[in-house]
Every structure is written in structure tokens, then in C-alpha cells.
Amino acid sequence: MSASRFALHTLAASLVVVCSGLLPAFAAELPPGTVISAENIDEIENDTFEGHSIASLLSEKMEWRIRNTGWKLPLANSQEVPLPQEWISASQANDGKTSINKDTCRVDGWSAGEPFPTIDEKDPQAAEKLVWNWHLGQLVGDVSQVPQFVQLLIDGESGIHGAPVGEYTRYKMTGRLTGDNSVEGDGDERGRQLLYFKSPSDMKGMGTYTVMYESEKVPSVWAYIPTVRRVRRLSGGAWMDPVGSSDQLQDDMDMFNARPCWYPEYQLLGKRWILAVANGKTDRWNPNGSDFNEKYPVLENQPPYWNMNNDVFEPREVYVVEATTPSVHPYSKKVMYMDAKYPRIYYVEAYDRKGEFWKFMETHSYLNEAEGDARTTSVAVIDFQRNHATVSLIDVASWRSNFDAKASDFSLQTLQKAGR
After folding, report:
1. How high is the mean pLDDT in each 10-residue block of the chain (420 residues)?
2. Given this model, what pLDDT does residue 6 score?
3. String of b and e for 76-96 (b: at least 16 CB within 10 Å)?
């Protein structure tokens, strides 16, 4: 080989070495079943799944959780969520006919379904409309009852230290999709909620009855205290209070449980793809299990014990909405990741009054085609500032929706009777 050819060959080889250090490795399409974890995230973050890079499918806080807290995400092919025709028709009927009335804290022109089925991202009210879609258009059924769920109180080092079992029922008074009318009563009430605990013995019978309104009026909430066999009415600010001894505020139930007008400001941060559980497994909790793994098959039995690593995460397109809280709220803001196809919030990041990251909320769900409701199978509210979490696991097999019931079946007297 001549000196000149050798020099060119050496230069070419050197350029290959230099360029290989600057360019990312060849991106591969990952197969379903691949598990994203701290051990492999650096190797696969430039790889793709359903055409999206792994890095682009993770929010900053999701990636932080994977790298630092043992969270693992098994990949699954995305599936279409089969939305019920009654809800689709009711939502389409609202298109172009509804508007937010800030004076009355209502959506004028709405009767049922999603009040704003078409969202223009350039609309200054886009974020607020998305939150109203969540508030009024959720696929929860006209009546929904979870006869049994467990609320795990988890220390990130020592594990589960409490597992109260409760029952939850919600009855809609407006936006109804079954029966002859979308409104029951005079339209003042939005709905009623009953929540009470069945065990352990020191919590048995304790619960709340809540009446929610179609106005700026805060809910009326009564608590039943079984030890004194008395009912106490809670203050108007109860919607911002913790649920029992959990990490969850009343406002965190279903991820966002406030009347939209109670928050002073919303901002649409964008639209993106993210990994979430929209068609998840339903075997969350086995009350008769003999050990941790049998009782809580979705959880991983190692610190921090709250990671729901044994589910299926699929790509979902979401809106990212930042909600600024009222000044008296424990949080300064909540950042929510909402499905772009129907009202479903997968993740919430909550920040304290100093603006520092505080809590991460995660919900897993699936759509029950038989009754046309989106069912939450599990919720994790993780307080990273105190290394503690509350994980609610639902006994999906006992869940009932749209059964024969009337508003009078859910009252303060119902709560008292259950408590005794």
C-alpha cells in the first residue's frame, strides 16, 4: 500500500471512530414485553416502540422515578379504547354549542357527555375546557359502586404498615346517560358520594357522605364517627383536606376532584405521547392471599414497595395541563397528563408552596365494555418528600355500574346505617 493510500485509510478509520462517538447507536424497534428499568434505560432510550423513542415517551419525573426509585415499565402494544356510543353521541351534540360561564361556574349548553369534544390548542381556554371535560364528561356510569377496595399505607423503607378496606359509591344527578332525563332533581346537585371503611376494627364504620353541586358552591360533607356514634359536618375547605391518614387529599381523588372554577388558572403546556396504563390488568388485589405476592400481584415486593411494576404500559397521546391552585391549597400547582381521546388522567405531579416537587400520582385503568365505564383499577399517591405512599387497589370483580338505584338510596342516613 502506498504512503498516500495508507494515510487516507488511516484518516477514514479515524473519522469512523470519532463519528461513532458523536452519533447515537442504531435505534431498534423494541418488542412488546420489553421492561424499561434503571438497568437498561441508558441502552434503550434512543430505541423506539411503535415508532416513538423511549426517551420521548417518558416525562422528566417518570424518567427520574425509573432511574432512582425502582419503577419498571413493561411495554405493551397500544389498544383502541372502545368508547360507548351513548357517550359519543352526547358529546358530539355539544360541539360548538357549549361555553364556560365563569359567573355561575357552569358550562352553558351542556347536558351530558364531554362538553367540549373539539379542542383547539390555540384557544386561550383550551386547558380550562380540558379540565371541564374531565369534570363533567368522565366515563364513570350514572351510578358506580366499588364494594371493596384496599388502601395500602406504605413506608418506602419498611413497607406496608396499614391496609384499611373500604367501600365507595358515586351517584350522578346531572349528565346522566341512562333513563329518560340527563338531570335528576332540580339540577342543583351534581352528584353524591359515599365512602366508608369496613376494617380494621378501629376504623370500621368511619366514613363520609358528600353532596356536590353544579355551581361554585363547595361540597357539603358530613363525617360519621363510630366511636361516638355522631355525624359531624366538615368545613367548606374539606375538599383540600387529606383523606384519613393517607397521602391523598380529597382533591386528589380520581386525580383531580375540584370544581374547575375553584382553581384560578390553567395552562396547556402541550400535547405529546407518553407511556400509561389504559388497558391494564384487572388482578390487583386478592384479599385471601397468603403473602405479599399473592395479595398484591401488581406490586413489586421490594423497597419502596409502592411500584406497580407488574402491569402493561402502552403509548398514549396526552394533553399536559398545569393547574395553579388557590393560595390556601397545600399544593402550588398540579401538572396533569390527560388522554387526548377521552377524559382520563394518567399522571399528576404536585408541587409544594415553595414550588418544589412533592408528590407523583399514578392511575391505572381499563374500559368496561359491558357497562361503558372507564374503571380505575389502582391509584398510587407517592409523597417523595417523606418517602411514603398510599396505594389504592380495587376489587374489580365486585364493581357494579348503572344498576337499579335512585338518589334517595345514597344519603346521610345510608352512611349512618353503614357505620353502625
Report:
1. 44 42 68 98 98 98 98 97 95 98 97 97 98 97 96 97 95 94 94 94 91 94 86 84 87 94 97 98 93 96 97 98 97 98 98 98 95 94 98 94 93 83
2. 39
3. bebeebebbeebeebbeebee
Which grid cell is 130?
380540558
Question: What pLDDT, on the 0 to 100 scale, is given for residue 268?
Answer: 98
Dihedral in degrees, nearest 10, Cα atoms 142, 89, 133, 404: 0
Helix residue ranges per DSSP H, 202-288:
none
Concatenating the DSSP letter of every residue in 63-119 gives: HHHHHHH---EEB---------HHHHHHHHTTTTT-EEETTTTEEET--SS-S--S-
Q: What is the DSSP letter of 234?
A: P
Task: Collect all residues with Cβ–Cβ distance below 8 Å to 210 and sequence separation of at least 6.
Answer: 192, 193, 194, 195, 219, 220, 221, 222
CA-derived radius of gyration, the chain: 24
Q: What's the pLDDT score for residue 380?
A: 98
Which secondary-structure segment (H or E) carries 223? strand 220-225
Nearest to 324 by CA among 393, 365, 373, 267: 267
Report the SS3 class of residue 278.
Answer: coil
Type of residue at 184? E
Phi-psi region of 109 (alpha: psi -120 to 50; beta: other; left: phi over 0): left
Q: What is the pLDDT of residue 18?
A: 42
State the pLDDT at residue 27.
82
The answer to whether the peptide bond before residue 304 is cis (omega within 30 degrees of 0) is yes
User: Residue 387 burial (CB < 10 Å; 0-12/13-18/19+)?
Assistant: middle
Would you say the pTM of this structure is higher than 0.85?
yes
Ordered by start, the domain boundaries in the chain are: 126-419
- Right CATH for 126-419 from 3.40.30.10, 2.50.20.10, 1.10.760.10, 2.60.40.10: 2.50.20.10
Distance CA 51, CA 72 (A): 20
The per-residue pLDDT for 25 is 54
